[in-house]
Design brief:
The chain is an all-alpha fold. The chain has one domain. Helices cover 86% and strands 0% of the residues. It contains 19 helices and no strands.
Length: 434
C-alpha cells in the first residue's frame, strides 16, 4: 500500500503533481470565476464590453499558448536528457521573439480598435480599456517564457504560485477598481496587473536557467512543432472566446450581456479540469520522448475531466435558477440567463474534453487532433452563417445551441480517432507477440 502511494505522488505518477496543480488551478480558476461573478453583480450593463476586450486579449495572445506548449515540451525533453544549456538557449531566444511579437501585436490592436467603425461594431466605449488591452497582449506573450519551463521541469509549486497569484491580483484589483468607479478600464486594469505579476514571478523562478551560457538547440525540430501548436492554440482559443465577440456583434446590448453572463458562468466547467491537462502535457511529452506508452495516462485524464466537469455541469443543468440566485442575485438579467447557461454547461464540458485531446495530440505529434479543432472552427462559423442566412434574429439561446453542437462535433471525431489508434496499437501488439 505504501509503495503504491509513493509511486502515485512521485513525478512518474499523476497524484502529487496533480494535487499541487489542482489546488493552484482551482484556486486560480475560482478567482477568475469570482471576478466574473463580481462583474455581473457590479457592472452587469458593461459586462459584454468587458468580456469582449478580454476575449480579444485571449485571441490576440494565442502565440503565448503556442510558446507555452513549445517550452513545456522541449524543457521536458531537454531536462530528460540533462541538457540544461539547451533549455537556457531556447528560453532566451523565445524571450526576444515574444517581446518583438507582443509589442507589435499590442500596438496594432490599439490602432485597429480605435478606428470608429470597429469601435461601433464591437460597442466599445473605453479608450483606456483599449490601451490596457494592448499592454496586456505584450505581457501575455512574455508570460510563458517563465511559466512554460516551470511546467516542463515539473516545478508545479512555483508554477502554481505564479498562476494563482495572477488571478488573485486580477480579482482583488479588478473588483476594487470597479468599486472605485473606474468601470471597464478598472476591470481590464486588474487583469493586466495580474499578468505582470505572473511574468515577474516566473522569470525570477527560472533565473538560474536564464543566466546559463546556453547551448544552441535544434531549432528546425522546434519550428516543426511550433506551427501545429500555434494552429491548435488559435483554434481552441477562438472556440472558447469568439462567442462573446459574436454576441456583441450579432445582438443588441441587453441580449449580448445576457449571453455573456451565461457563458462566463458556465466557463467554470472549462476551468475545473485545467489542472489535469496542465499536469498531463509535460508528463506525456516526457513519456513520448522516452518512447513509452501514453495511452493509459490519456484515458485517466479523460476520465478525471469527465468526472469533474460532468458533476458541475449536472448542477447547472438541473438547478440553474438556484445557481443564479446564489451566484449573481444582483444581475438585472438573471431571469433570462438560466436557459442559455444550461446549454452552455454542456458545451463547456465538451470543450474541456477537447482541450485534453488537443494537448495529447501536441505532446505525441498527433496532428489529427489539431485538424479536428480547425474543422470545428469551420463548423462554428458555418452554423453562424447558416442561421444568419435564414434571417433569424440571433438570441442567446441560438448561440448557445451552436456552441454545444460544435463541442459535440469535436468529441465525436476525437473519440473515433482514438478508437482507431487503439485498434492499430492492438494489431501491432499482436503482430509483435507472434
Amino acid at each position: 500500500m505504501f509503495e503504491r502511494t509513493r509511486r502515485l505522488i512521485s513525478t512518474e505518477g499523476m497524484g502529487g503533481p496533480a494535487l499541487i496543480m489542482f489546488i493552484a488551478t482551482v484556486g486560480g480558476g475560482a478567482c477568475n470565476f469570482l471576478y466574473q461573478l463580481m462583474m455581473q453583480n457590479l457592472a452587469a450593463t458593461e459586462l459584454s464590453e468587458i468580456n469582449t476586450i478580454l476575449a480579444i486579449l485571449l485571441i490576440a495572445s494565442v502565440p503565448s499558448m503556442a510558446i507555452s506548449n513549445v517550452l513545456i515540451r522541449y524543457t521536458a525533453k531537454y531536462n530528460a536528457k540533462g541538457q540544461d544549456e539547451s533549455i537556457s538557449w531556447i528560453m532566451r531566444r523565445t524571450l526576444l521573439l515574444a517581446l518583438i511579437i507582443g509589442a507589435a501585436a499590442g500596438i496594432t490592436i490599439i490602432l485597429v480598435l480605435n478606428t470608429p467603425e470597429v469601435r461601433h461594431q464591437l460597442k466599445l466605449t473605453s479608450s483606456a480599456g483599449i490601451v490596457l488591452l494592448g499592454l496586456g497582449i505584450t505581457l501575455s506573450l512574455l508570460l510563458p517564457v517563465g511559466s512554460g519551463p516551470l511546467q516542463g521541469l515539473q516545478r508545479f509549486t512555483a508554477f502554481g504560485i505564479s498562476y494563482m497569484g495572477n488571478y488573485l491580483i486580477k480579482l482583488a484589483l479588478g473588483v476594487g477598481f470597479v468599486i472605485l468607479g473606474l468601470g471597464v478600464a478598472g476591470a481590464v486594469g486588474g487583469v493586466v496587473v495580474g499578468i505582470s505579476f505572473g511574468v515577474a514571478f516566473s522569470m525570477i523562478a527560472m533565473r538560474k536557467h536564464l543566466m546559463l551560457k546556453g547551448e544552441r538547440a535544434e531549432s528546425r525540430e522546434i519550428w516543426r512543432f511550433t506551427i501545429p501548436t500555434t494552429i491548435a492554440a488559435l483554434g481552441f482559443t477562438v472556440l472558447t472566446n469568439v462567442d462573446v465577440i459574436l454576441a456583441a456583434i450579432l445582438m443588441e446590448k441587453d441580449p449580448a450581456n445576457i449571453y455573456t453572463a451565461a457563458t462566463r458562468l458556465a466557463s467554470i466547467i472549462l476551468y475545473l479540469p485545467g489542472a489535469i491537462a496542465a499536469v498531463m502535457f509535460p508528463k506525456i511529452s516526457r513519456l513520448y520522448a522516452q518512447r513509452r506508452s501514453t495511452q493509459k495516462l490519456l484515458k485517466v485524464s479523460l476520465f478525471s475531466t469527465i468526472m469533474l466537469s460532468g458533476l458541475v455541469a449536472l448542477v447547472f443543468v438541473l438547478a440553474p435558477n438556484m445557481v443564479l440566485n446564489i451566484l449573481v442575485p444582483n444581475n438585472p438579467y438573471i431571469l433570462y440567463v438560466a436557459a442559455p447557461m444550461r446549454t452552455l454547461a454542456i458545451a463547456m464540458t465538451l470543450l474541456g474534453l477537447a482541450n485534453v485531446f488537443m494537448l495529447y495530440g501536441l505532446a505525441t505529434d498527433g496532428h489529427a487532433y489539431v485538424i479536428i479543432l480547425i474543422l470545428a472552427v469551420g463548423v462554428l462559423f458555418l452554423l453562424i452563417g447558416g442561421v444568419a442566412h435564414t434571417g433569424l434574429i440571433f438570441t442567446p439561446q441560438i448561440l448557445a445551441n451552436i456552441m454545444a453542437i460544435t463541442g459535440g462535433f469535436i468529441i465525436i471525431l476525437s473519440t473515433i480517432y482514438l478508437l482507431i489508434l487503439d485498434r492499430e496499437l492492438g494489431l501491432l501488439m499482436r503482430r509483435v507477440s507472434q
